[in-house]
Design a protein that fits this description.
Distance between the termini: 33 Å
Strand content: over 45%
Shape: elongated
Helix content: under 10%
Number of helices: 0
Oligomer: single chain
Structural class: mainly beta
Strand order of the largest sheet: 1-6-3-4
């Protein structure tokens, strides 16, 4: 299974937070099983901000602009609970989080 979400905010940057995270434990790399990949932009080839797998809740991830692409990929070898994530807007010019 593959799911993709594009987060887009007019003007402000994006802070992505995970409150729960339980995916398949990684093999030699996260791409060998289930993983979430976060990209800094709106395109599949935008720079990678992080690739997450296993059961440790990832740290907050911040975009450099107003787009963030979140991709989840899963194989059928093992079933775990998944993840819960949320995002909010932040403006680095004044340090405010909305």
């Amino acid at each position: 299974m593959s799911c993709t979400w594009l987060i887009s905010l007019p003007k402000n940057k994006i802070q992505l937070s995970f409150s729960a995270f339980a995916l398949q434990a990684p093999g030699p790399s996260c791409q060998d099983g289930d993983f979430v990949e976060v990209r800094d932009g709106e395109y599949p080839d935008s720079p990678v901000l992080g690739t997450f797998c296993g059961s440790n809740i990832p740290s907050d991830t911040f975009s450099s602009g107003s787009y963030m692409l979140v991709q989840f990929r899963s194989d059928e070898s093992m079933e775990k609970r998944g993840f819960v994530t949320s995002y909010r807007s932040y403006d680095t010019s004044n340090g405010k989080v909305f």
